[in-house]
Design a protein that fits this description.
With 160 residues, the protein is an alpha/beta fold. It is built from six helices and five strands. It has a single domain, classed as CinA-like (Maf protein, Alpha-Beta Complex). Helices cover 45% and strands 22% of the residues. It has a five-stranded mixed beta sheet, with helices on both faces. Helix 1 packs parallel to helix 6.
C-alpha cells in the first residue's frame, strides 16, 4: 500500500516532536480532514481555523485589512499572514494555509487558482498553484498540493 502524504507528515512530525496547525479558506476543512484520518494525529495536530470570510481572516488570524485591500484576498501576502497567524494562535511548530478560487475567477486569477503558505521555524514560504478539475476536484487537489508543500518544507527545515 502506498504511503499517503498525510501519513508522511505524521511520521515527520512524530520524529521531531513538532506540531501543526492549519488555516483554510478555499479548501474549507479538507486539509484538516485528511490530517485527522491518520491514527494518532492528536499527538501533533493542534487544530485549524476555516476562515472563509474576510472578517475571520482579519479578526481571528490577524491578517491586516490593509494587506487584503492592497493585494487581494487571493494572494501570497494574505496566505503568508494566514499561516503565520494560525501558527501564532495555536502555538504550533508549523502551519499551512490556503486561499484561492475553487470555482469562478476573480478578474485577476482564473478558477482553480490557490495560494499555499507554510510557516515554521525557518520562516514563511508561499506557492501559487493552478488546476482545472471543477470545484470538488480543485478542492481535493489544492489540499493535496498544500500537504505536499508542507512535507517538503518540514523535510528541508529538519536538514537546516
Amino acid at each position: 500500500m502506498r504511503e499517503t502524504i498525510q501519513s508522511r507528515i505524521a511520521s515527520q512530525l512524530n520524529a521531531s516532536g513538532a506540531t501543526l496547525s492549519v488555516a483554510e479558506s478555499c479548501t474549507g476543512g479538507q486539509i484538516s480532514h485528511l490530517l485527522t484520518t491518520v491514527s494518532g494525529s492528536s499527538a501533533w495536530y493542534l487544530g485549524s481555523v476555516t476562515s472563509y470570510a474576510i472578517p475571520v481572516k482579519e479578526k481571528v488570524l490577524g491578517v491586516p485589512a490593509a494587506t487584503i485591500r492592497e493585494y487581494g484576498v487571493v494572494s501570497g501576502e494574505v496566505v503568508a499572514a494566514m499561516a503565520e497567524g494560525v501558527r501564532r494562535l495555536m502555538g504550533s511548530t508549523y502551519a499551512v494555509a490556503t486561499t484561492g478560487l475553487a470555482e469562478g475567477g476573480d478578474g485577476r486569477y482564473p478558477e482553480g487558482t490557490v495560494w499555499i503558505g507554510v510557516a515554521g521555524p525557518g520562516g514563511t514560504i508561499t506557492r501559487k498553484y493552478h488546476c482545472d478539475l471543477g470545484r470538488k476536484g480543485n478542492i481535493r487537489r489544492f489540499a493535496t498540493v498544500a500537504l505536499q508543500t508542507l512535507a517538503h518544507y518540514i523535510k528541508i527545515d529538519s536538514i537546516v
